Structures are given as C-alpha cells and as structure tokens.
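#onboarding

Welcome to the new folks! Below is a worked example of what a typical request in this channel looks like: someone posts a single protein sequence, and someone else replies with the predicted structure as tokens. Don't worry about understanding the tokens yet, we'll cover that in week two.

Example request:
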Amino acid sequence: MGSYLCKRSIGENRSAVKKLKKIPHHQIQRKLQLSFNALDDDDKKGIFLDIACFFIGMDVDYVSTLLDGCGFHSRIGIEVLMQRSLIATNWYNKLRMHDLLRDMGREIIREMSPNHPGKRSRLWFQKDVLDVLRKKMVRPKCYCEHKLTNA
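Example response:
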C-alpha cells in the first residue's frame, strides 16, 4: 500500500485510507486490488496477470522476451510493478510475488467467467486446460493475440 500511496497528495492519501477502512479485514484481496486498479494502462495490468498466472519463479529476462513477443512493453512494465511492490526478484533474477497477490491476480481472471474456463483470457490449472481442449470450448482472443492482430 505504501507504493500505491507514494507521491500522492495528502488529500489523496486520506481518501485512500478512508476507503480502506470501509473494507473489512477479511476482504484483503479487495484491498490489494486497489494497487492493481491504480496501474495506469492495460499493458501493466496484462503483465501483472501473466506473471501471476504463469511466470512466478522464472527468469526475468526470459519472461521479458516472451512478453515483448506478445506486444507488451515489458521492461518498463516490470519495472513499474517492482516499484509498486507487486512483484520482486530474488538473487537469481527469478520473478517473485506474494501468494496473496498471486491469488488476487488469478481471481481477477477467474471472475471474468467463473463457470466457463473456456471464456477466460488465461488458464493455469491443468484440469481447466484439458477440459477446454477436450470440449473444444471457444474462448475470445487473449490480450496478447488481440494486440498482435491489431498491430
């Protein structure tokens, strides 16, 4: 939350604290989601969601190459996510993310279509992937595919 409130006016900080006080403690993901919602563009949100779903524990340079291939501007996106403490790296340059942030990111995706995994933009559970492939469920293009076809 500190990185979310950093460089904001006193009035903005007070407003954010009032908003946080209204959210019960058991709804921590809603509190964490404020930092996600404050990301200024879909690129950074997409990078965050991809890391939460697929890339935790992977080398930052490798992930950056993959994300760049999808049309993201990954270097600046990853840097902003680090500045906001949404992700981190370890001594071996591997991506890290707190479990609560990972769960929040995955819940954002799941909420897109709670009962129909084939309509979600990302799948990370093997069972969901197999169900979608076996049942030939149609899903909309993911953000990465959309950016490439509209480039």
